[in-house]
Amino acid sequence: MKASSIKKYLRPSTIIGRKSTFANAFASALAPHDVYSPELVDAAIRDLGQDPDADLECVYCGREAATWDHVFNRVTKGEFSGHGHRVRNLVPSCRTCNESKGQKPWRDYLDALDPPDKQARIDRMEKFLSSADAQPVGMDDMRHKAHDELERFLEIRKQVFDLMAEADRLAVVIRQKASH
User: Fold this and answer.
1) pTM score > 0.90 for this model?
2) For each successive 10 residues of the chain (180 residues), what is the average pLDDT?
3) Which of 63, 70, 61, 65 is nearest to 52 (CA)?
4) What is the DSSP secondary structure assignment for residue 10, as one 8-state letter?
5) Cβ atoms 136, 72 nearer than 8 A
6) What secondary structure letter does DSSP report for 126?
7) Handedness of CA 89, 90, 91, 94 (dihedral sign)
8) Residue 142 needs a FRET pair 20 to 30 A away by CA distance; which of 30, 74, 91, 112 works?
9) Are strands 79-80 and 90-93 parallel, antiparallel or unpaired?
């Protein structure tokens, strides 16, 4: 580490700088989730070519799985993506693949990783994702089924962001007055 790396700590923090964290929280709150069902989980794992009673392997590289990866992110550009905590959106993954995949589409990640059995992995993922349970819940569906509630939800989100910006403006004034 270089001494100059301290520069990033020697600046004022902002509340609005955390906007993406709050945007993700609002978007994630809309995300659907499945109730745990051993039968649904077992069927999904079998579609991935794995034995649900054995230790699971990473769908991307084949190493021992240690976590679950969201195939499709719940949040894209601060907005709800239509995907959530659903059985057909969660796949076993090693930590390395989960972290390095990040926001990338699963197929792009597999192409870049280029495992020797890439096509077999793609075929299993496509089978896994072909289920109707893997389809996203669109914002249009939400607007149609819960229009008033969604509009109020989005209004609250805007108010929170407006308040964060106001708090940042006040923080600047407070720092200035306190340091003189």
Assistant:
1) no
2) 84 83 85 91 96 96 96 83 89 96 94 96 95 77 90 95 94 92
3) 65
4) S
5) yes
6) H
7) positive
8) 91
9) unpaired
The two tokens of residue 127 are: 């089978």
Measure the CA–CA gap between 106 and 126, rounded to whole angstroms.
Answer: 11
Alpha carbon distance 62, 116 (integer Å): 10
C-alpha 31/C-alpha 74 separation (Å) is: 6
Q: Please give the Cα distance from 10 to 4 (Å, whole number).
A: 11
Structure tokens at 159: 């108010």
Degrees (nearest 5) of the Cα angle 119, 123, 128?
145
Q: Would you say how long the chain is, in residues? A: 180
Task: Taking the CA atoms of 141, 142, 147 and 151 in sequence, report the sign of the dihedral they define.
Answer: negative
Res 79: pLDDT: 77
Q: Residue 177 corresponds to which amino acid?
A: K
State the Cα–Cα distance between residues 117 and 126, nearest whole angstrom. 15
In the structure encoding, which two tokens stand for residue 142, read together? 């939400």
Q: How far is CA 77 from the centre of its chain?
A: 11
Residue 30 confidence (pLDDT): 86
